[in-house]
Input
Amino acid sequence: MNLLETKALRKQFGSLLAVNGVDFSISKGELKSIIGPNGAGKTTFFNLLTGIFPPSGGQILFKDEDITNSPPEQVAARGIGRSFQITSIFPELTVFENVFIPAMRYYSKAEARDRAMEILEDVNLGGKAELLAGNLSHGDKRHLDIGIALTCKAELLLLDEPTSGMPPEESARTADLIVKLKNEHGYTIVLIEHKMDIVLAISDSITVLNFGFKLAEGTPDEIRGNDEVQKAYLGGLDTSKIRPEAKARAPRAQQRKELLRLEKVNTFYGESHVLHDVALTVREGEVVTLLGRNGAGKTTTLRTILGLTPPASGTISFNGDRIETMAPQTIVNRGISLVPAERRIFANLTLHENLELPFFTKGIPASERRAQIDQAYQYFPSLERRKHNKGNKLSGGEQQMLAMGRALMGRVRLVLLDEPSQGLAPIIVQNVADIIREINKRGVTILLVEQNALLALDLADRVYVIDKGQIVYEGDAHSLLADQELSRQLLGV
Amino acid sequence: MRQAPAPPSVRIDYLKMMILFAAVAALPFGIPYMGGYVGLAIEMVIFAIFAIGFDLMLGYTGILSFGQAAYFGLAGYTMGLVCIHFKVPIFVGMLAGVVLGVLAAVVIGLLIIRKTGIYFAMLTIAFGQMFFFIASRWKDVTGGEDGLTGIPRTIFSLGPFSWNLQNDLSYYYFVFVFFVVATLAKYWLVRSHFGQVLKTIRENEVRAQMVGYNVRRYKLYSFIIGGAFAAVAGVLYAMFLRYMFPQTLDWIRSGNVVIMGLVGGMGTLFGPIVGAGLVTYLMNFTSYYTKYWQFIMGVIFVVFILFFPRGIWGFVERNRSGSR
Amino acid sequence: MLLAGDSQGSFRTVTRANIVAQRQWTSSSEQAYPPIAVRRPFRQIHRVSAAAMRPRASALGASNMTFHLTLPTIINQLVNGFALGTLLVLMAVGLTIILGLMRVINFTHGVLYALGAYVVVTLLPYLGFWPCLILAPVILGLVGMAMESTLIRRVYARDPLHTMLLTFGLALMIEDVTRMIWGDAAYPISTPAVLAGVIDLKMVVFSKYRVFVIFFCGALLTCLWYFLERTHLGKTILAGTFDREMVVALGIPINLLFTITFGIGAGLAALAGVLNAPIQGVFPPMGSAILMPCFVVVIIGGMGSFWGAVIGGLLVGVVVSFTVEIFSAASEVIVFVLMAIVLLVRPRGIAGIEGLLE
Output
């Protein structure tokens, strides 16, 4: 019998179809993982199941009852517990109260006390019951988050990246905990997780989402052998499709000057340790690619360089100067700019105004500004026609081009490109790739972050691979390409 | 399995409260030595009741209402009007005042409880100010700017029980009874399941909803209870002055309650009481020496926000219990 | 609510008969501060509200419940409503931009408005009205910037409620500072000579100054709109309202942007104070009195929206001025009723931005 079932579940945000007709089911006692590249709609899917957003269409059945439009508190009361991607606990209450107060919703006071202690034992926090939850370590907080999800007489657990921000040993502990919850306590579990080793090791079955669609479903072995899935993750990594010049390209620029250098960089979000001793170098005029699965720390690396999330330790130097303690505006004015993965176009300004915005304090003469904007329109001819359209009237591809154009304004030496291919049709991806190459030819250095390995390797002079916040591979693109097994291990499923 | 942590000791809390009650009971005799008089003591205790209710909202539920004076004043006016025009016993007038104050909180609460944070705060100010203008402009009923005079403070009688309130000292102990009830009520509320849920909402609203609590309803209840405390304080205040005037409903008055809570320390048992007493005393004291007391209140407020956002009691508790 | 409260007097229909009385009120000592009524047991209650500043309605024979919505009355009330409305818009636009960009409810907006008017009190004898109209906004713009960069900035990292409470404390302080410097008494400010008197169109008669206020504010709002939509700085502020972090990522110094925005808001508030001084005179609680209608305009218009503030301000102005004609006692309360209706129909206000402050 299916414990939970969705039929053609759909969610639309404006023009974006975040979840597009997903049929999903899980039977009692099963542990099913949901994986997929960034923006695949995984967390949105959880939000639909738990009633945070009303779905735009489709149906959700729990124990054969329709819960499609139930508010979150009723979904919880029916026995669906959920943990959160960003730790969600009650920081100023004790660990015990964190589970005791929710448990009182379902049990008498005395029962709730016992149940709360039981839950804390289950999530390995029995000895820390009297501490203030906000003072726990990051890992313990993640476990407490799961503990809170258990309080609602849960039969079904929805765990959203329970190991995020954890070092490997702790992730393994969490994986053990999840298996224990399933085997010893009989919970049915849906798991969203980026760490492939964990997913493959503990799941009974896996559902792959991509662009809001269900791409594939099956046992871990079936998923591993599924070409479609590998393609989604690797961007269709297929050596035969790589252009000959990419393979033949000699490693240029070895002797060129270093432009950017990261050494032993550690970055945290709150207490979540995201980057572990990251080191990388970019030389003048290069295209360097940072590859990695989603959740590996790629975007964080870029944010750290730009000073948006300053590093806790380590050094970053740009053009010979240390920049790790500088404010973003100073760093940007030295010639680094960012193209964020979500584009982040200002929807309330026109396309042209978006392009002008970076000139705010750069002290660049008007003639040069105009020349630069004209240059941007030359790179992206399709933008000029839509010059006076507001940002929210642009298509995904146009937004990507605009974000790239915007990043070139000012005297830019290094562009940090975050997943330019995300959410774009293949033909547009090819177009974007050509433009990146063109920009690079004119002397702009590029640090490209990608999941789409095909695009990235096609462009790159050198490649770094990051996994779980650590640099695990460094080398030139074609050596990585040549080793299919290695690339699959680092980047695929 | 390990033992669940023992629930916090009730006995110590009751002991603390007994000491507090004894101290407050002795206040009318101590206050002349502090340059005050019984009237000031009455006012301090009335505002303590007001602040206790406010703390339930901001300190325990995390919702900031900047319009609490509306329910305070509305209840006071209603009590006065009912007593003056219908010549009913004081008890009936008080009941009518509190009921109307609570009703207003229910209606406004229903309208705005979906909003959060400063949006919610702004709406409470605006709606609160509506009552201010009704009081100041509906001259035929409220007396307008001249205020409502002739509110009775005579003999409180309920069944066989009666209490002559005309004397200030006697009235002080009448108010004191309400203070004791309010303090205990808050203590029980906070320790009850209901109060615990409020704390989870303060800490993390989304999560509280995700474990099955109807957050909006709890917030609404909290808002109504806060309104009820304000209404009780308002009724007592009207009787105390035997007079009501529009400024009792003004947003500056609402702001004063926020100051009291903040100076004392939100989310603590005694903080709002200490804050209300201290701020009321200080306002009176400074206004004795200078007419610019509002400047001094502003300075105190700014200093507390910048340097002691947890207030006096919060500061004391935090320092005493180390890491907690 | 002072503007509305005053409406019995000066925003009232300007008929030929009461123009004389009105001119007298605005320029004579009739507006003297009423003696502090010592009838309450404690001195801290001795705040005299804005409403208490209002001349007794009966003195001007204003509380006539009879009304005739003839064409001249309608035109007249529209003029009054727009004069009141444009002043409110001037205030509310500053509030709403600060709210949109910085997520701060600025309680000091009212006292900055009052300070603007007090600058006129001090400088009028030396400079005359027109230089004050320029100097006051500049001076208070700088005061606002100083306040933002030294005090308010310290609490941005905390709960937004703290910023709001901090500005509340500052507002209390500043209001008393105005009392310390200029005293409790009200100062009447005479209308500049060029604008004294009325425009007589036979059928209807307008106060010249009101008409000037409308056109001046209208021009100023057009400039402001131009500034926001067409200049680099303005567009950057709009961009910051939409996505603050991305503005930082483009290398724009956000702190500077905050300070400038706060300064602009303060300057606009001061300007509204200057413009209103000849209409209502200058007195200490004028700031706290105008704050509420401004909040209501922001809520009705929708948090953070320029056009919302414009529409909301004009709507409030017109509704108030017609209510004054029809049932003057309700002229303040009507604003809140309007707010409640708007919120029931459109929970985000007329042009509220989705997701902002929610």
Residues 71-102 of chain C form the longest helix (32 residues).
